[in-house]
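Saturday, quiet lab. Running sequence design on the structure tokens for the scaffold JK sent over.
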């Protein structure tokens, strides 16, 4: 009978009950009902971990904010802020707006350097974007060796871009994102409409300043695509730098 009494005691202990359920709700209930309980610290630590796990698994800015509000001096606050920065960066990319990138910079003025530079760059892009007319994406299967009789072993994309503003542009780049069935980004590449130089040789005409009123064609081809690619892409302007 002793083992039955011990089992009954373990099952009736509120901390053990919370452990068995192992949910945010269970530990919140334990801490509310037992503010001075002997396992308050352990319950609080586990609750922090569960909040962060939920935020990461759901990709939810709201859950990160709930955690930060719930634990203003939490043991995992530094980790939460870093994870939230990464999430907010991805969120800004998905939102694809100047306001989203400004929000990122406002909330993380000391963001990781690479992210901060990219965000600042995108704020500049969206400031000039109303002056650019970006056409529809043309997608076709191509031969990567440009052999008209060769196999179609790659894909090619073209987008017409018109500079309708008054600025002379020396560097304008487009990013192509390869999307999965659920619209998730599998991979991405950047290639210039115009650039003074590039990491690989580019045509001389691509180095010439993009003048007001001109229309140019961004073209890109690729034979190494992600296995889960859904034959769907997103193409957007990812850099604009004016000529002196």
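Result came back. Writing it out in full:
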């Amino acid at each position: 009978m002793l083992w039955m009494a011990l089992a009954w005691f373990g099952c009736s202990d509120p901390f053990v009950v919370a452990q068995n359920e192992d949910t945010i709700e269970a530990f919140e209930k334990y801490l509310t009902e037992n503010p001075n309980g002997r396992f308050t610290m352990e319950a609080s630590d586990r609750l922090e971990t569960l909040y962060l796990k939920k935020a990461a698994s759901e990709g939810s800015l709201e859950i990160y904010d709930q955690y930060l509000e719930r634990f203003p001096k939490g043991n995992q606050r530094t980790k939460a802020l870093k994870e939230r920065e990464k999430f907010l960066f991805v969120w800004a990319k998905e939102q694809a707006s100047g306001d989203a990138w400004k929000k990122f910079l406002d909330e993380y003025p000391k963001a990781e350097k690479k992210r901060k530079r990219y965000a600042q760059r995108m704020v500049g892009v969206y400031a000039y974007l109303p002056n650019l007319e970006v056409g529809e994406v043309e997608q076709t299967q191509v031969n990567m060796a440009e052999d008209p009789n060769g196999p179609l072993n790659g894909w090619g994309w073209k987008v017409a871009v018109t500079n309708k503003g008054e600025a002379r542009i020396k560097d304008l780049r487009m990013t192509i994102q390869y999307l999965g069935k659920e619209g998730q980004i599998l991979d991405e590449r950047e290639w210039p409409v115009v650039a003074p130089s590039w990491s690989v040789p580019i045509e001389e005409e691509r180095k010439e300043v993009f003048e007001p009123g001109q229309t140019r064609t961004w073209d890109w081809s690729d034979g190494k695509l992600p296995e889960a690619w859904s034959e769907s892409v997103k193409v957007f302007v990812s850099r604009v730098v004016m000529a002196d």
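Notes for JK: DSSP finds eight helices and seven strands in the chain. The helical segments are 2-12, 14-21, 24-33, 40-58, 61-70, 77-95, 98-107, 113-128. Ask whether to fix the surface positions before the next round.
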